[in-house]
Amino acid sequence: MVVKVGDRVVVESEKVGVLPRRGQVLAVSGALLTVHWHDGHESTFVPSAGSLRVEETADRPSA
User: Fold this and answer.
1) Is the residue at 39 inside a domain?
2) 16-37 exposure pattern, b = at least 16 Cβ within 10 A, e = fewer
3) Does residue 2 form part of some domain?
4) Does this model's pTM top 0.85?
5) Is 61 part of any domain?
6) What would the pLDDT profile of 35-48 be if each residue is shown by its tens digit?
7) Residue 10 three-state SS
8) Residue 47: burial class (beta carbons within 10 Å; 0-12, 13-18, 19+)
9) For the chain, what is the domain count?
10) Under a CB-based contact definition with an 8 Å cutoff, are residues 3 and 25 in contact?
11) Fewer CB within 10 Å, N- or C-terminus of the chain?
């Protein structure tokens, strides 16, 4: 799945007991994503294989 600007994503933690992070994609440059997280922080990173899940695409309206 291709991640696009505006998608809402969930990134699973690699550590046991740590909650996943939820946020909205602000920019995509190849594999590099910039995400605004629900806690107000922003970061740029390359997600590891299987760690990122698109929760809601930018094309689908909110319920």
Assistant:
1) yes
2) eeeeebebbbeebeeeebebee
3) no
4) no
5) no
6) 999 999 999 999 88
7) strand
8) middle
9) 1
10) yes
11) C
